Amino acid sequence: MSDAHAARRTRLRERCQASGSATALVTRPANVRYLTGAAPRGAVLLLGAAEDVLLCGAPPRGDSFEGRPDDAVRVQLLPKPGGDPAVTAADLVTAAGAESLAVEEHHLTVARHRALRSVAPRLRLTDLGGAVEQLRVVKDEEEISCLRIGAEIADQALGELLESILVGRTERHLALELERRLVDHGADGAAFATSVATGPNSGRRGHLPTDRRVEEGDFLSVCLGAVYRGYRCEIGRTFVIGTSPADWQIELYDLVFAAQRAGRESLVPGAAYRAVDRAARHVLDSAGHGADLPALMGHGVGLEIDEDPQLAPAAMGKLDACVPVTVEPGVHLPGRGGVRIDDTLVVRPEADGGPELLTITTKELLAL
């Protein structure tokens, strides 16, 4: 992907030059990896008018976890251990006679910003803003391929768990087993902390597993994701344990499934972010669950598990083709439990078959 990384840096360089900065300092790890192919711990990218430099404290390992920098980027190690690569970058910019440097103010700490000011007091620091994040929204086919493989791994791990005996096992044990299976099937690791929720805990967004044991008749909701070559996907499913579902469980599941389907069907190029949220939210709100719904019905995925776009009521913007997002409505009934259904999809035009579903584990309400 060296050519792809170089093209991304060229687009960013053009944006910087249009705003009056010949150089830029990229410090957010996901942005560094997007532009160079690698994000060694603590590394920063100095985007120059003639040369791009990856500054890091130790030589890049080149493994799948942190990536491999492309050949067009010069790797420079810090002269002293324990130094700040961003400060070294400011020294390089000053020595080269640059007058301004665009920085990611939303990522820099106050202390780091002060350090840059102290070593380069005459350097004009401008805000790069979310320029790199904006470039990251639309994925190329190689990025989508990584997400697709990650989704296949997550589907495999979840499918194997469903074939095992679940009654009597704790949420924590099941979450650890899922994360082990992700790695066994080729993931770099879990995309986020795996959520396993049973009984009254089920349906909670971001539930952290506890020592509660799975019981017959429980709802079991699971949300997990895999990292593959830095790219992160997400899947969430809800099942019933050990017996035929109760009427209230079937009714709640069908409701959330209808909301999720409405959200998925609204994923077309040109659709407003808020319209996707509204499509899913309306189904649940109409059934009397509006007061307890999450803040958003989905979000973008990529090098981070929660990135733009945000599919939320007040979100501004419209979907483009080749944008991967989640659609993840859920309802939790306090003291009883609930349902979450979560898929990762890629926005595609209708001429190409409509949204591409990456996570394909069945959404049928199974009794395990």
From TrEMBL:
GO terms for molecular function: aminopeptidase activity. SUPFAM superfamilies: Creatinase/aminopeptidase, Creatinase/prolidase N-terminal domain. It comes from the Bacteria. It holds the Pfam family Peptidase_M24. Residues 8-138 form the Creatinase N-terminal domain. Residues 146-348 form the Peptidase M24 domain. The keyword Iron-sulfur does not apply. InterPro entries: Creatin/AminoP/Spt16_N, Creatinase/aminopeptidase-like, Creatinase_N, Pept_M24, Peptidase_M24B. Keywords: Aminopeptidase, Hydrolase, Protease. Coiled coil: none annotated. PANTHER family: AMINOPEPTIDASE, CYTOPLASMIC PEPTIDASE PEPQ-RELATED. This is Aminopeptidase P family protein. It comes from Streptomyces ossamyceticus.
